[in-house]
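Lesson 9: reading folded outputs for more than one chain in a single document. The general rule is that every protein is listed as its sequence immediately followed by its C-alpha cells, and records are never interleaved. Here is the first one.
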Amino acid sequence: MKRSTLKLGSIATAVALVSVMASCQNKENAGTTTAPKSESATVTSAEKIVYVNSDSLLTKYQYFKDLKTKLDAKSKTAQTDLASKQQAFQREVTQYQQQQNTLPADQRAATEERLARKQQELQSYSQNAGAALQNEQATENEKLYDKVAEYLKTYAKGKGFKMVLTYSKGNSAILFADESLDVTSEVIVGLNEAYSKDKK
C-alpha cells in the first residue's frame, strides 16, 4: 500500500517538464547539429532555422504554471484521500488484532474475509485513482503541446522561419547553436499574451 501512495505522489511532479517540447524535437530535429544557451538576440527573417529553450519556455509559460498547479492540487487531494482510507483500514486491522483471541472461530473467519476484501478494494481504489490522474495528465499534456505547436506554426510563418527546433539541457540533439537564433523570450511573451486573451 505504501507503494501506491508513492506512485500517486509522483504523478503530478511528472507533469511534462520536457515532454511537450521533446516531442517537437523528435519531429523537427532532422540531423541539424546545434546547441544553445542564452535568452535571445534579434533574429532576422534571413535566418530560416531558429530554436526555443524548452526549459525556459515551460517555466515561464503561464499556462504551464497554471496547469502544474492544478495537477499538483489534484494529486495532493488524491494522496490525502488515499492516506485517510488507509488509516481507517489500519485502525480496523489493529482493532481486530486486539480482539481476535476473544472472538469465536466463525466470527474471526468472517472478519478476516471482510478485511481481506477491504484491502483489495483499497488497492483497486489506489490503482484507479493513479490511472485517472495519469490519464488527465496525458490529456493536459496533449493540450499543452497543441497550444505551443499551434503558436509556433503561426509565429514561424509570420517571421518567415522554415523550422523551429527545441533545446533542453541534457535532452537535446542540438550540441551548439548561435545565440542569435534563440527566440525563446519572444515566443514566451507571445504565448503568455495569447493565453491571457484566452482567459478573458
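And here is the second record, again sequence then C-alpha cells.
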Amino acid sequence: MSTNKPRLAIISDLWGTRGTEWVEYYLQSLKPTYDVAFYDSCMLAGFDCTNLQEEEIHGKMVAGGIEAAAARLLEQEKGPVDILAFSVGGTIAWKAMLLGLTVGSVYLVSSTRLRYETSKPEAKIYLTYGEADEYRPSEEWFEELGLEHILIKHEGHTLYRKESNARRICEQIKGKQALQV
C-alpha cells in the first residue's frame, strides 16, 4: 500500500521489543505525519533477546550484531527514509547509512556507541543525549565530525523512555519534517 506520508523507521534500543511501552509515545505522535515502521534491534541483528541479560545482549551486539543489523536494515529499507533510533539502534542506523542507506534526516537519541565512529554518513543528523549520560560522545568528537547535539539537563541514558522527553523529541522531529516539506 502506498502512502503520501514520508517513511520513518524507528529502531529500538538494546532491549528490542521487551519493555517497550515507552515506544507508544513516539508511535502515537508520529504516525499521523509518517508512514512508520518499527524495528527491533535484536531481531535486526539476528537473535532473540527475550531471555537474555543485558550483558549478553550487549556482547552479541558488539560481536557482530550491530553490523548484521545494519546490513539487514539496508535490505529492509530501500530509502529514502527518515530514522528515529534509540541507544544501540542509533549505531545500527549510522552504520546502515555508511553502507549506503538513503536517509533524509536521522534522529539519534542516547546513541553512545557513536563515540567510536570516525566517519560521518550523509544525512541531516540530529543527536540528543542526557547531560548525565557518562558514555555520550565527548565534545571533541562532536567537533571533529562537525556535529551539533542537544543535551537534556539532569537526564541519563534512558531519557527517551520518559513521556515528557518523548514529546520534546517528537516535536523536534515534526518541526524539522515540516521545514523539509
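What the second record shows: The first helix runs from residue 23 to 30.
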